[in-house]
Each structure stands twice: as C-alpha cells, then as structure tokens.
Amino acid sequence: MKIVEGLFYSKEHEWVKVDGNTATIGVTDYAQDQLGDIVFVELPMEDDEFAQDDVFGVVESVKAASDLFIPVSGVVLEANLDLEDAPEQVNEDPYGSWMIKIELSDENELESLMNAAQYKEFCENL
Amino acid sequence: MSIKKTPLYEKHKENGAKFIDFGGWDMPVEYTGIKDEHHAVRNEAGMFDVSHMGEVEVSGEETTKFLQHLLTNNVEDLADNAIVYTFMCYEDGGVVDDLLAYKYNAKKFLLVVNASNVDKDFDWIKKQSVKFDVVVENTSKEVAEVAVQGPKAQEIVQKLTDYNLDDIKFFTFDDGVEIAGVNTLISRTGYTGEDGFEIYTSNEDIGLLFDKILEAGKPLGLKLAGLGARDTLRFEANLPLYGQEISQDITPLEAGLGYFVDLDKEFIGRDALAKQKSEGLKRKVVGFELLGRGLARTDAVVLNSEGEEIGHVTTGYISPTLEKAIGLALVDSNYTKLGTELTLQVRSRKIPAKVISKRFLKSKKK
C-alpha cells in the first residue's frame, strides 16, 4: 500500500496536500483498494462551502456508493472534472487523482490530521 | 449466529480475495477486481465458489406428484437428467425462492436453492410434503460446488475428463462423472448468461477440483471470480436475484418470468397467479437506461414526469460489458412501454432515464 510523505491524512482515508492557504484533497491508495473498481465520482460545485467532516461528494465503485468527507473546512476553488469522464484514474493513481481544491477556512484544523507515519500505523491496525 | 465458511475459504485467502458477509456466509466478493473478473467470464472463463448454495433431495414414490404441487414449472414431462428453472410460491403468489430442479428420474430430484434461503426453503418443502409419500433431505452441508463459466469453460473442463462434455446439453446434467479424478455431478447451467458448468462434489474433494480447474484454466485466461462479478454478470443477462427482482412481495409474473409458471396445472399459488394474470398486472419489472450522468442502484426511487413515485430500482449498475448505466426497476404498469421517460431519484439528484428492453446484452451482439 502506497503512502506519500508530506501529506496530511484523515481517518476516512482522504489525503490533503497543503500549499499556502490552498488544500488539495483526494482519497488514499488504501481507500481505492477497499472501494474496488470506481465507476463514478460526484463532486461539488465551485464556491460550495463545507465544514470539517461534511460530506463533499460521493465515490461509487461497482459494488457501493461511499461518501467523501472533507478533512478540513473550506470553500471549493475547483473540482477535478476529469474524473467525471475517467473515474478509474482514482484506482490507477490515487495520489495523482485529486478531487477538489479548497481555500482553507481554519489552518489549525490540520493539526487534527495524521502525517504519513501516523497514517501508516493507523491503516496497519485496521 | 456464527459466520459460515465454505471448504474453499483458505484458497480464496491465498488467492487474495476480499470477503463480504452474504446471507451468513463469509464469501469472496472479488479477487483481481469486479470488472476484470466480469470481462474474464464474458471473454474467456471464470470460476466461482458456489458451495454456499443449498441442496435439497426429494425422493420416493410420489416425488413427481409432490413437485408438481410445490413448483410453478412443470416437471412431469421433463426427461431424466434434465433440469428446469422454477419457483416455489406462497398461496398468494409471492415467491418462497427460485431454484433449479434436477431430475434423476420420476422418483428422485435434486433442488438447488439460494444460500440465504436454505433453512426457510427446507422448512417450507418439509411442511408441504407431509401429505405425500416422499423423503425430503437437506444435503447442503455435505455438498460443495464450483461454477466454471464463460466461452472457454468447456475447453478447460474437458482437459480434466475423458467424459465427452458435448453430451451434456444446456440444462441437463450427469452424475458419477470423474473430473480431475474427483467424482462429480456436472450440469450445463449457470448464472452469468454465458456457456458453462456447475460442478458438485464433496467437501473433501472440492479443494483438489478447484486447484485442477484453476491450473487447467489459467493458460486459457480463466480467473477466479467473486460474488461481485456474479451479480453484475447475472444482472446483464437479466437473471433475477431473489430479494430484488422476485421476493415474497413480488410475483414471478410481475418480474416478467411467467414462462416458468405453468398455470395449466395445480400448484401452490396457482390461483392467486391466475387471478393476477386475468385482472392484469399492476406493476412490472422493466429495464431502464440513465440519460444523465451517474448510476441508480437497488432501492433508488423511480418517478414519472410529474414527479410522482411510481416504483423502485431492483438492480442497477454501470454495466461493465455495455459501459452504460442501466438497471431493472419494478414500476407501475402504466410506465412500462419502451421509450417511456422516467426520473431516478439518486440521493439529492434527479437523473432522467428511459425504459429499454431488459435483454441488455442483445443490443451488444447486434
């Protein structure tokens, strides 16, 4: 299972890459493996606002629909619409297939997330 | 209730399966991925562990008479070694289960029923049998089974036996057939819409049979396939799943499966079904295709163009073969004409759809 250094991770298996006040969010390799073949991704609109742990989208695999929980609060700057036409990219390259970019509402929330080493340990104990 | 495992459980683990709880059984849902396994079955071959299925043997002087009473389909004129797909219904026409009836001879049949219904079915059959001179035995625990399905299925299994598999025609079987040195019962049946076999043997021998088929099949593209692909495959072939297209509350006629109901004989539920037929069906299972993005799964609500609820989805997927979002839905009979516009409520979204033929794969073969 692949875990990338330098990202933040949530218990719901999302990764967060922070660049200044912008956060890019996707799902982890563990998540895509658990979901199986992804066939549809439903993402929010630009300017949609979410509080930490809100559902911001849905990822559908062949067998089930799973909610996407936003790891940190923010306002959507952009959604990765490429995934609408090629949802299988999430399986193939989970860390390259970002879902949304947001403007962070509260940087302090990042402290509630895990780093790569902590996330690795978290997954191993599941 | 403790979770049950088939004799092949450890082999699934060794082969990297992910598991789900299915009707109290810890079963492989996928190995290499549902789509990958699905395509393997459509194009080459796949092997499924179906040891969880239930087997009930009925034997004795009045076997045929009893099964004519119990089952909706006609087993009287069936040749020895032939199989029929049939239902057992309640008096009100609701379905107890759907099953295959294997006829050894007029005095001995094997009924193969759904795993999740075994106890209910056995109780039902036993209760109905009291007035007949028959013996009913639940042999589910002693019988293990694999399904080898796909265009290469025969070539693969033939490698392991001297028995000429051409002699087993569609929906027939033979027992005492040696495959890979193992004594089996083999039928040309399945739940995928492809050619293939279902092979029954003992719990002790199934492991060897599984290994030999896998070994013989791998060079021909055979993959292990789990319940995930089993469901997408049977759905595309418009084969019903108990609890979804048919159930205690959905009759075979409503599901469009009247072909397997012989109203010209007496059986449990016959009068209710005959009445339903003569009065006209109030709802029917139809095929649909989404015209907008997304997919509509089991239990999604179906609306008409005025936004009124007219039914629900029984099964829905993005079809791996057709690469389209399609499904089956039980809807008010006023909305079953091909091309009728429907709306599917999926979470907060309303997705436009239209009624299409349930013979989904036919459009592909044109």
Radius of gyration of chain A, in angstroms, nearest whole number: 13 Å
Q: Level of helix content of chain B?
A: 10-25%
Distance between the termini of chain B: 49 Å
CATH class of chain A: Mainly Beta
The count of DSSP E runs of length 2 or more, i.e. the number of strands of chain A, is: 9
Sheet with the most strands, sense and barrel status of chain A: 6 strands, antiparallel
Q: Order of SSEs of chain A, N→C?
A: EEEHEEEEEHHEH
**Overall tally of domains of chain B:** 2
Keywords:
heterodimer, A: 126 residues, alpha+beta, OB fold (Dihydrolipoamide Acetyltransferase, E2P), six-stranded antiparallel sheet, three-stranded antiparallel sheet, 19% helix, 35% strand, globular, B: 366 residues, Gyrase A, domain 2, Elongation Factor Tu (Ef-tu), domain 3, 2 domains, six-stranded mixed sheet, six-stranded antiparallel barrel, 9 helices, 34% strand
Architecture overview:
The complex is a heterodimer of chains A (126) and B (366). Chain A has 126 residues and is α+β, with helices and mostly antiparallel strands. Chain A has one domain (8-121): RNA polymerase II/Efflux pump adaptor protein, barrel-sandwich hybrid domain (OB fold (Dihydrolipoamide Acetyltransferase, E2P), Beta Barrel), CATH 2.40.50.100. In chain A, 19% of the residues lie in helices and 35% in strands. Chain A contains 4 helices and 9 strands; from the N terminus they run βββαβββββααβα. Chain A has helices spanning 29-35, 82-85, 89-92, 116-124, and strands at residues 8-9, 14-19, 22-27, 38-42, 49-50, 55-61, 65-69, 74-79, 100-104. In chain A, the strands form 2 sheets. Chain A has a 6-stranded antiparallel beta sheet with strand order 1-2-3-9-8-5. Chain A is globular. The model of chain A has no long low-confidence stretch (mean pLDDT 96). With 366 residues, chain B is α+β, with helices and mostly antiparallel strands. Chain B folds into 2 domains: 1-279, Gyrase A, domain 2 (2-Layer Sandwich); 282-358, Beta Barrel (Elongation Factor Tu (Ef-tu), domain 3), CATH 2.40.30. Chain B has 9 helices and 19 strands. Chain B has helices spanning 9-14, 34-43, 63-70, 118-128, 153-158, 206-217, 227-236, 270-279, 360-365, and strands spanning 18-22, 25-30, 45-49, 54-59, 83-89, 95-105, 108-113, 135-138, 143-149, 173-179, 182-187, 196-202, 222-224, 283-290, 301-303, 309-318, 325-332, 341-346, 349-356. In chain B, strands 10-11-12-9-3-13 form a 6-stranded mixed beta sheet, sandwiched between helices. Chain B has a 6-stranded antiparallel beta barrel with strand order 14-17-16-15-18-19. A 5-stranded antiparallel beta sheet of chain B has the order 5-6-7-4-8, with helices on one face. Chain B is globular. The model of chain B has no long low-confidence stretch (mean pLDDT 97).
